[in-house]
Amino acid sequence: MKIKIIKIMLVSLMIMSYATPGFSQAKKPTIMVVPSDVWCNQNGYMKAFNNQGTIEKVPDYKRAFQENSDLLAMISKINGLMADRGFPLKNMESVVKTLESESAENAMLSSKNGGGITESPIDKLKKTAKADIIMQLTFEVLKVGPKKSVRFTLQGIDAYTDKEIATAQGTGNQSFSADVAVLLEEAIIDKIDNFNIGLQRHFDDLFANGREIIVRVKKFDTWAGDLEKEYNGEELGTLIENWMKANTVKGRFSTSESTENMLLFEQVRIPLYDSSGNAIDARGFARNLQKFLSAAPFSIVNKLMTKGLGQAVIVLGDK
Q1: CA–CA distances in Å: residue 318 to residues 110, 230, 294
Q2: Angle separating helix axes 69-84 and 180-188, nearest 10 degrees
Q3: How far apart are the first and last CA of the chain?
Q4: Can you tell me the distance from the alpha carbon of 122 to that of 128, in angstroms, rounded to the nearest whole number?
Q5: Strand (E) or helix (H) holding 6
Q6: What local confidence, expressed as pLDDT, does residue 103 receive?
Q7: How far apart are CA 34 and CA 12, in angstroms?
Q8: Which among 79, 171, 184, 231 would be 20 to 30 A from 319, CA to CA?
Q9: Judging by beta carbons within 10 Å of its beta carbon (0-12, 13-18, 19+), is residue 114 exposed, middle or buried?
Q10: Helices and strands (H, E) in the chain, number of each type
Q11: What is the pLDDT of residues 71-120, one digit of tens each?
Q12: pTM of the entire predicted model
């Protein structure tokens, strides 16, 4: 018992150190709790999604919230635990309702002459919520006679890169309680603080080194130019790379692919916030590159498309 108390005190001190101005940034990541694909599939909350002609199964979040009271209780409990620790959360149920007005599952962004990209429901969910981190929840209520317990897995996912940055899992003690939120709290209470430390550590790295996104530059077949066309003695592709160096945090990005028809920039580090304190996503960053290419000496008509928060595509030569 003494060892457990000492452990809790040490974790509390670590959290307090993260709250001090000298150790961490004033801003904390915004977070949204989402039921995992595994949980949705196991509980029958999936539906068909047309992904550019290929039928895929995707979570039906709206029906899950409408029909499953355990899910609402679980997410509400986690929201409360996180809020108690100073982490702002987005309410997923509210975000889902916002998405309904767009009828967005089958929407496709395309050029006037054809071509484009689609977004899955989770991509649209991320873009609407604009959360820094998605907390992906999988849980199961276990029953042994009259007693119950909750087994859970919680994964912290960077909403821009889909990289896992923190994880917690466990099974609570068996209890006679019928309240699944109480059962979850018993299972998660001694793990959530370390989980939050991982989230904050990742966010501090983003604050210091920039948020990570992907940017692609392509061309429409109808455009006569390409990325090897020269302007004032420099190829267009080289000029775009120079722009990236000047506008990324510490000039950090990787040119993963470079041809006359396409550029692929990965691990592109962009600022978290603009001068007004608003969060910057891939679309906001790429819009500046779009303006650069539209202006002299290039004057290239181009189209900007995005996928989720973390991917942007600029297609040259058409709208």
Answers
A1: 11, 19, 11
A2: 40
A3: 66
A4: 10
A5: helix 2-19
A6: 52
A7: 26
A8: 231
A9: exposed
A10: 10, 16
A11: 999 999 999 999 998 887 888 988 888 877 655 444 434 444 444 445 67
A12: 0.78
